[in-house]
Specification:
mainly alpha, 11 helices, 204 residues
Length: 204
């Protein structure tokens, strides 16, 4: 949940850096750590005032028993969604992403996700549906709307050649280094093209 909150309205790289500094505060990182962390320390991590307030509110709800995040997987999707959005700072998109990506709820349906909306016309729709239209659209797939969401994300990834919501970016530590071309090889490959251009110039 903390990772989703941190990633709102920032780039993937910035979110990864901030989240890394946040969880490095203590090991293990849990709601107690968030509750005890001073605001000035969280600000130095890179969190905004609004995100600190949200994380503190969620941590307090967990600590008091107002919410049991692990129990959400066994609740109907709509009830689990309503439970999450009742917490300060958690909107519909955050709730749906958490249900689907973090606890694997089989019926989660992120109706407000842009990637899903752009992939939906593949279902023979005349145009991209709005967030309000996406809800009724998925009613026929209950109680396995999450399966449809993942299929649409997969289509979006292929059709748009872009990553959908649930595709985790490759870690810089696992990224293979870019191989540099051998200048000599590049020169040898370039000569035939240059010679051909020269012949074409003379011919004209």
């Amino acid at each position: 949940m903390a990772q989703i909150i941190v990633s709102q309205q920032v780039s993937v790289a910035s979110a990864a850096a901030i989240h890394g500094r946040l969880v490095a505060i203590a090991d293990p990182f849990d709601h107690i750590v968030v509750l005890r962390a001073r605001k000035d320390r969280l600000l130095r991590v890179g969190l905004s005032n609004a995100k600190i307030k949200t994380l503190k509110a969620i941590a307090k709800a967990i600590d008091t028993g107002a919410i049991d995040l692990s129990a959400l997987a066994d609740m109907p999707a709509d009830a689990a969604h309503a439970t999450l959005v009742a917490l300060h700072g958690i909107g519909p998109w955050t709730a749906d992403v958490y249900l689907l990506a973090c606890i694997g709820h089989a019926d989660a349906w992120p109706a407000g996700d842009i990637a899903l909306q752009e992939a939906a016309p593949r279902l023979r729709l005349p145009k991209r549906p709005t967030t309000r239209e996406m809800g009724p659209l998925a009613d026929r797939w209950r109680p396995y709307r999450a399966v449809a969401a993942r299929l649409l994300w997969a289509y979006y990834r292929v059709a748009k050649q872009r990553e959908g919501l649930l595709i985790q970016p490759q870690s810089p530590l696992n990224t293979a280094p870019i191989k540099k071309k051998n200048p000599a090889q590049s020169s040898r490959r370039a000569k035939p093209a240059a010679a051909k251009k020269k012949r074409a110039t003379h011919a004209s």
